[in-house]
Amino acid sequence: MHFTALVATVAAAALPALAANFDVEVGANNGFVYAPTSISGAVAGDTITFTFTSRNHTATTTTFNDPCTPPAGGFGTGGFDTGFHDTTSGPQVAVITLQDSDTHFVACRQAAGAHCHAGMTFAINPTDDQTYAEFLQNALNDPVHP
Question: What is the dihedral of CA 23, 27, 28, 30, to 10 degrees?
């Protein structure tokens, strides 16, 4: 009985060590970009380290069909919002921990969606039914909202 509890405790303690981290640069070369533009294979407990290298941006979950109006706080269960990161004093870092292995779409909230309209988008676990390329096209074609 004690052995089983010990094994369960050791296994639970090892779980954080098994989590993966995905590095994403935000605003590379002073552009409206996330690099890379998508990641796959991310699961609950994994982290994404967003390194903001230029301007003032966010990484905020949004919807596939209406990407350029991401709400403050992020969209949906497991959604997130890094908040604005102004890099005038140097690079800024935000680390988020994924709550699930679902597909999430991300855009920058800056300038009422103007950065998103310029293609500043990112996808977590895109699928064959909802690809990153389609999400980007939705952002480029999304009507400007006042």
Answer: -170
| Domain residue limits, the chain | 19-141
Please state, in angstroms and as integers, the Cα–Cα distance from residue 45 to each residue in 6, 11, 133, 138, following that order: 22, 15, 26, 29
In this prediction, residue 70 carries a pLDDT of 87
The predicted-structure confidence for 68-114, as pLDDT tens digits, reads as follows: 988 889 998 899 999 999 999 999 999 999 999 999 999 999 998 99
Report the topology of domain 19-141.
Answer: Immunoglobulin-like (2.60.40)
- What per-residue string of b and e applies to 86-98 under the rule 16 or more CB within 10 Å gives b? ebeeeebebebeb
Quick one: which of 98, 74, 76 has its CA closest to 24? 98
Q: Which letter does DSSP use for residue 50 in this model?
A: E
Q: The tokens 């994404």 sit on which residue?
A: 48
DSSP structural state of residue 44: T
Q: Which two tokens stand for residue 91?
A: 């690079």
Q: Other C-beta atoms within 10 Å of 27: how many?
A: 25
Contact status, residue 110 vs residue 86, Cβ threshold 8 Å = no
Name the strands in the sheet holding 38-39, side by side, starting at the edge strand that comes first in the sequence: 38-39, 121-124, 104-107, 60-62
Tokens 């090892």 label which residue? 14
